[in-house]
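User: I'm curious what two different proteins look like when written out as structure tokens. Can you demonstrate?

Assistant: Sure. I'll show them one after the other, since each token string lines up with its own sequence. Here's the first protein:
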Amino acid sequence: SVSAVRNISFDERAMVAGQSVSSYILLWDFRQLVRPQMLLQCPHEVLTFKFNNKKPGIVIGGTISGQVVMWDMTDAIAALNKKGNNDDEGKETAQVVPKFVSHVDHAHKRPVSDLFWLPPSTQINFRGQLVADEHLSDESHQFVTVSGDGHVKVWDIRYEQIFNDELRHIARPKHIPVEKVGSKDSKDGGLRPLWAPIYNAHIKRPDGVGELSLNKVSCAGLLNKSVTAASALEGDPRSRLLLTTEEGDLIHVDICATKKGAEDSKADDDDGGDVKGEDGGRDYVKWMAPNDHQRPCVYLAQSPFFPDIVVSVSDWQFHIWKVGLDKPLFVSPTSRTYMTAGAWSPTRPACLIIGQADGEMMVWDFTDSSYRPSIELKATPSKISNMEFLVSTASSRHHLLAVGVDIGTLHIFELPRNLVRPVANEEQIMQRFLDREITAMHYL
């Protein structure tokens, strides 16, 4: 699927700022590529969105207004499957309206720059504490958003159940904002719950000077426990986030951190806390690398095979970091043009793909070379804006990479076998490369 955003200048966008506009997410089906299978409607332009891994029919999106939106396509997909995918000219594209839209007063003050679903093993309550294991299930109900306003917000799609006092381990009804509707004699007392974040963490610089404008986020909790247990990440990885800022900083935070110099003394569920889930002087920032890049990061992700290894892409270079070290392990050679996107290979530990402003894709294979890309491909005639992998469950050889460009075109590439199948002992080879870079960094 693709989110379409108006390609207009800054001056033109300033003239229409705050106005509602019909925006869509286009959902494509490989069985019918003539037109989109479905359109997800939104009153504001969607800058980022994610599918729920456990329930693919549920989609969340972050808008240019700072609000978040949720769609439920389950019924629409079932209706399409029932009718069949016949390529009839008179057949109209199915449209899905949002199920939930957050209230603007409780949303971000700047556009939502990035978001992700929390894994089923992670749930956070209104105090910013991890929920006990007995309350967890095999479904994802919460997600995190970041924005240039410096806030990390945790949202729960079950806010109506919380309002009905069915999820006390998450929050109480008084923690859900409401508005008056109807009459007081109605069943709900004339109150309607508003979708607002369960918890809000305001990330500030460790020295207390200046704000942090967040633009990318990555989460260690998305990795398997067996993988994170062997990493250098301290504490519970489920609440650890990696963030980047518009100024080029790289930050490692714990959104469930306790207050500075004291443990959280609020143990009584009835004592309320802040209705908005605000933090109270917590020491969120555990590690910070200022000036990782001179411009905003366009791609931030942890390695699927090494959870404490992170790549950040911006400008003419990408950096590979080990969380906790104050300098990058590896700095790529300067590129001929801007780097605009990136993607770790989900099957090869030593393979990284970078997209550029001139439409080229560069494949960095660290089992082959670390001073130049192993493969360069002129993929598109326009600037690459995003890249996303899809690994088919039917066959490991059927490996697809979706590439979006800034003129609105979607390209699907099938990778060759040598970029899908790992070489012998590739994970050990990559680990030795990282160890050599760490040794060289300490020596210098």
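Here's a second, unrelated protein for contrast:
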Amino acid sequence: DAPTTRAVAKGGTGATAALRFTYLGTTARTDALSSGEVRSQVGLKLLAEDGCNLLYVMWRAGERGGVVVQTKRNRGKSTSFECGADGYRILTSPTPRPSAPLEAGPHELRARIDHGRLEVVADGALVWEGDVSAAIEGLRGPAGLRTDNARIEGTFSTD
């Protein structure tokens, strides 16, 4: 129920993660992101080297909602204090598939990188797939989860 949650799971390759959760809506108190935007979202972190270098798979609520894949790369920086909102880049799938905004209720979000190819499944539907090898080159770290202004209950798993 906190405005921001960040976590990583120690061990594993960091290339696979799943979150089964119930989205209970926006938190009572909301915080702006480093960019200044206020958004309710739940997501997975893959190859999370640190807070400045990783791949995100985020499921956003609201009218501009849906699943978004993005990298955050800031070479030489490792803490959010150092990089803030710098280094984000949205990745586009060569085969775009629509994904619905996150709404209240039970959900599952899964992501897997295999030989540089990312597949994202939301509530059983393939919503994003494509080659991310150039975007993740050199990243090494665990998988994790992230929430912003989203109340959830659920379970997280990784490889």
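A detail about the second structure: The chain is about 5% helix and 50% strand.
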